[in-house]
Design goal:
mainly alpha, 10 helices, elongated
Amino acid sequence: MCKGLAALPQSCLERAKEIKSKLGVLLQKPENAIDLIIPYPEKNEKKPEKLQKPSAEEAAQWRESLDRVLSNDYGLATFRSFLQSEFSDENIEFWMACMDFKKTKNPVKMATKAKKIYEDFIQTEGPREVNIDHFTKDVTLRNLVDLSPATFDLAQKRIYGLMEKDSFGRFLRSEQYQELLVN
């Protein structure tokens, strides 16, 4: 049966208070360096729209380039679904977040989106970290100090290149894409 804190030696109680105090200090500090640059309000998600399925001819034109796929709403959704099925959708999610960021005009919203993009995709050990080199990470971090629609351009170009070189070919061979050509 537990006798409570009174049963503990005084030295243990003092040590516990010391640890609690140190943890309290850690909880008050910013989680990472980006918190020092950009404040942290969150945004609400929008509901997806119903998409028009393309004709077989239109889907066949997607073979020409990744741009063709990404510029078509149904193509983008299909490519994204394909990457999700391969558990490798962080690249397209990052690319989409960058496109959304570029359209943002309000400086407060821009700062919020930049922070979220950095924390989710660029920051080392981020939950959806994309595969970019250290130079690109450094340039992107420096760009966060003076936000503009071009803040993530270098990183976005690198990720686009990876998707074009790797994922796009697999997508064109996928069952999801091949089914669109049969209609």
